[in-house]
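YM 10:42: Protein kinase domain-containing protein sequence, as discussed on the call
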Amino acid sequence: MSTLVLKYALDTYLFEEAKSVLPADIEANRDTLSLDEVIKLYITSNNVALNKYFSALFLIKLEKESPKGLSYAKMLSYGEYLLQTAPELRESIIECCDSILITELNESKDENDVMAWCHQGISLKRLGKMDLIGMKIGLRDFIAFMWKKTNEVYKLNDSQKILDHLNSLHYGQEYLEFPDLEALVIINIHAALDFIGENITNEFESNEGNMDIQEAHKILNFLEMLESKDKDYDKDIKNMREKCNLISPPNQDQSKTLKLTPFQHSNLYSIPNDEFSITLTELPFNSNITENFQMAIYKAKNYDNDVCAKYYKILKENTDTSQIFSEINIYSRLSEIANANNCFLKYYGSYLDSKKGIWMIMEYIPENLSTFFKKLKDQSIELNEQVYANIFLKLISSFKIMKDLGIFHRDIKPDNLLIDKFQNVKIIDFNISLFKSHNYDNKTTSEYEIKGTKNYIAPELLELIGKNIDSAIFNPEKSDVFSLGLVFLEFFKIKKLRGLNTVKKNERLFRRISKVPYPWVRELLANMLNANPEKRRTFGELLNYIDSKSTRTMKH
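YM 10:58: structure's back
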């Protein structure tokens, strides 16, 4: 029934909205389109009416083809997008997504599967303000899997597995808002306290082979976060904490909590409504100081959530801060359209601390492509063609969206591309980027300051730098295309690429391209890495070189 209701909306209301921009061949052949082809259509479109149409089409097809497995869990974000852009279809959207959720949860293999699907379910529930039957099935399965794991995990004498188990229980109770977990919580508190009691001694260090006392404190931290109606256990947890403190108190970190207020300025595109708290628990993982600014980037905590916090301190009065405003505005603008099918970070806002330092708060991803490439090499990991196709498609599509918004990165390199454990790539570091207020056609050239990193900058710019020229007339999109092409080539672990981004060495660079095992990638790179920018393709044109047969929905 849910498919029929949403399909009716697709055939009528959504089609009427999109028909003026919907290609006739797509409409005529929509029933034969694969899920992957619909995804590609969605991520290469910047038209809201088309994206609504493709989102509904994807959900209808996914419901018919379910179960598809955990790799499709994040795809329910199409439902979230529709709820935001077509709230009048709320009931049919929720019914369709709920049907998918039910089918997928009935195939779940463990509590991690349940949590992944219900993570999407709770977002839909909150956004649509409707209960989902799938969440009730998720609760049923979560309880069953957690009881089974509870009976196993405490017999293993492995504190890390117990911590992971308690983390799942806390996640189900706190984030997924699962009710009826009282019995599970009580038995886990009891078992965890017994485990600690059996493994610690009243000396200043634990017996050889037993748990580290700091692990006992971590387990107690989780027990304190679990909610139980039986308050007698609060006393038991407190007593066990005191016993552990006699051996050794919890390590005192150097954490620092900051209360931040919204950064309000007429030059900012978006201003957050509320204050924001972060806790800094580590030294900055990146920092720099110039004549005018001190910059540092931290991994921080906002309650239980990891965030990335970028800090600017202005060192001189009357310093030009326009580039900071531009960076903030780029993150804000791209965050508005961030989803599972592009490479944009979630940006949580710009804030000031008590000393007027500027804080930019965004999604945290620990690994960049530089460390990822090193891991591929050191561990002899080979990615398959599907992974390359999906990463390349998302990146090219995302840079095309940026170009259409008048944003040019100007420093594309592995350090500025983050990657998570599911091979989702995110674009960062817009501190030298261009952000213009109007769109650009494919032949746009103007005079710009020359920016970039020596080993990744386009040949036409590197040649000018060699002549001590710091600004010139050039097409910033074409220079970004070249830089991205060099990054793509590094995925294939081809040696001796450094220094080949010159006009004279372009032929040698093309010999490296010939070593790539996939014909469609060789053709793609040949059209990105031509030393002549006139012969280099635009991001929009490059989409035609992605092998659609190789693209598959990635795990998110």
